[in-house]
Amino acid sequence: MKFPKIYTLKDIAQLIDSEFVGDENFPVYGMNEIHVVEKGDIVFVDHPKYYDKALNSDASVVLINKKVACPEGKTLLISDDPFRDFSKLATYFNPFNKADKSISESAEIGEGTIIQPNVFLGNNVTIGKNCLIHPNVVIYDGCTIGNNVTIHAGTTLGSDAFYYKNRETGFDKLISCGSIIIEDNVDIGAACTIDRGVTGNTLIKEGTKIDNQVQIGHDTIIGKKCLIASQVGIAGCTVLEDEVTLWGQVGVISGVTIGRKAVVYAQSGVSNSLEGGQAYFGSPCDVARKKYRELAGIKVLPEIINKVNKI
């Protein structure tokens, strides 16, 4: 997320009441998670395991819970709770705006687009030309929809990321301030849910078709011309390259990449990145032909055991 103007390191430190290391006039342009952070951004880290990754990232400002050596060209914000303060900044720069109408006055709707009854469009939603938005669709603030997009009844776009920190008092939520971008010629079925990015965008690229009852987590990128069948669940920060097919009830863990033109058969569980151009099956899934041979071997295993016991 980029800020509406350039802030100084001192400005940010005052917002979260933290110490800082570096020039107080150091420019700060935005804030982002580690996987999408850019030069000029703030990134947060609160575990020693990830200190080096954050300090060596593209981030210019590292919000951290320990005084460490500051890399050249970067600055530090020292906080007793970076998770809390990152959410505090998200809330400050992207405050919640209560809706007072079903379709916000700031929503932009393109020529030829049809909005069916009982649709909710939040603040600053943009919908392109010749779209069809069916009844009871909910599109939260800031989402962007391209041209020739169809969204079926009961689908929700822009709900918060499923991102929590476990504390003794319960789970603390990381505030989501990213958004969703749906490109041209995408179809989204009924009763789907697509979460907004934490600080960046969840992206569905051109020509992708999504069946009913599909869940797509925060910051996931779905490539062009993908096919996603009913009851698929995709966790956050996942990448599907172009022309990937996921059949019904496939589950995909967070942070993996599924390569171009890969096909994952129904009820498979994807727990690691997959190369493109192959078919996969099983949980954990593997190349389908290999998995089928394994299953065939299991079927004859009792017979083999009986023969061995008779020897």
Automatic annotation (TrEMBL):
<dbReference type="Pfam" id="PF04613">
    <property type="entry name" value="LpxD"/>
</dbReference>
<dbReference type="GO" id="GO:0103118">
    <property type="term" value="F:UDP-3-O-[(3R)-3-hydroxyacyl]-glucosamine N-acyltransferase activity"/>
</dbReference>
<keyword id="KW-0012">Acyltransferase</keyword>
<keyword id="KW-0677">Repeat</keyword>
<keyword id="KW-0444">Lipid biosynthesis</keyword>
<protein>
    <submittedName>
        <fullName>UDP-3-O-(3-hydroxymyristoyl)glucosamine N-acyltransferase</fullName>
        <ecNumber>2.3.1.191</ecNumber>
    </submittedName>
</protein>
<feature type="domain" description="UDP-3-O-[3-hydroxymyristoyl] glucosamine N-acyltransferase non-repeat region">
    <location>
        <begin position="26"/>
        <end position="91"/>
    </location>
</feature>
<dbReference type="GO" id="GO:0016410">
    <property type="term" value="F:N-acyltransferase activity"/>
</dbReference>
<dbReference type="GO" id="GO:0016020">
    <property type="term" value="C:membrane"/>
</dbReference>
<keyword id="KW-0441">Lipid A biosynthesis</keyword>
<dbReference type="Pfam" id="PF14602">
    <property type="entry name" value="Hexapep_2"/>
</dbReference>
<keyword id="KW-0808">Transferase</keyword>
<dbReference type="InterPro" id="IPR001451">
    <property type="entry name" value="Hexapep"/>
</dbReference>
<dbReference type="GO" id="GO:0009245">
    <property type="term" value="P:lipid A biosynthetic process"/>
</dbReference>
<dbReference type="InterPro" id="IPR020573">
    <property type="entry name" value="UDP_GlcNAc_AcTrfase_non-rep"/>
</dbReference>
<dbReference type="InterPro" id="IPR011004">
    <property type="entry name" value="Trimer_LpxA-like_sf"/>
</dbReference>
<dbReference type="Pfam" id="PF00132">
    <property type="entry name" value="Hexapep"/>
</dbReference>
<dbReference type="InterPro" id="IPR007691">
    <property type="entry name" value="LpxD"/>
</dbReference>
<keyword id="KW-0443">Lipid metabolism</keyword>
